[in-house]
Amino acid sequence: MKSMKSVLDEIRGVKLKNCLWQLPGAAILAFGLYNVHSFADITEGGVLGLTLLLHHHFGISPSVSSLVMNFICYIFGFAVLGGGFVVYSAVSGLSFSLFYAIFEQFPPVWEGIADYPLVACVVGALFVGVGVGICVRFGGAPGGDDALSMGLAKLLKKVDIRWIYLVSDLIVLALSLTYIPVRKIAYSLCTVVISGQIIGIIQKAGKRGC
Question: Distance (Å, rounded) from C-alpha 174 to C-alpha 124?
Fold first, then answer.
């Protein structure tokens, strides 16, 4: 656990540029989840997948559920990781909820995308990968998964963070079988793999100067 002084020092070191970059990342992510994932029965792992699961079974808007779950993840992240990461993640998380709520007021851009699951799989992965990738590159995590996974990786020192991500994604995808056919879950798994690779590429490309 970091001391209060070190946490405050990290918060003081927060960059406005990094905060502003969370906005387009969150907007791209929200646009893709609303216009592709929610209409094509293509889901994601982690918190993003849980928001879609709750939306299907209980009619809870991702703009609400993501806010609650991300808040819990941020509290955990704050306790383990410190202040700087949590500030950027809070900006991206709140921005995602706002943008999703705005997009919900309009009809979907591609009404027939559900008829082309492979296209939906790839297009959805591009939106998630680019959106989350931008946020992660500048220190944030709109879905809260990064805060949760990084915190667990720090506590469970012998467990590689990649396995924590994979396990959480597989659990959510398994739960999603309650409303998504096995064939479409396969497309969802493909989406998770593609989006994860894109996030990694964008994150590595932005290691310098952020």
Answer: 19
Residue of 134, 97, 142 lying closest to 18 (CA atoms): 134
CB 135 within 8 A of CB 142: yes
198 neighbors 129 (Cβ within 8 angstroms): yes
161 pLDDT higher than 70: no
Q: What is the 3-state secondary structure (H, E, C) of the chain?
A: CCCHHHHHHHHHCCCHHHHHHHHHHHHHHHHHHHHHHHHHCCCCCHHHHHHHHHHHHHCCCHHHHHHHHHHHHHHHHHHHHCHHHHHHHHHHHHHHHHHHHHHCCCCCCCCCHHHCHHHHHHHHHHHHHHHHHHHHHCCCCCCCHHHHHHHHHHHCCCCCHHHHHHHHHHHHHHHHHHCCCHHHHHHHHHHHHHHHHHHHHHHHHCCCCC
| Token pair of 42 as six digits | 């293509």
Report the Cα–Cα distance between both ends of the chain, in Å, rounded.
25
Dist CA 147 CA 204 (whole Å): 18
Torsion angle in degrees (nearest 10) through CA of 128, 131, 135, 136: 40
What pTM was computed for the model?
Answer: 0.79
pLDDT band at 194 (very low <50, low <70, confident <90, very high): confident
CA distance 137 to 205: 8
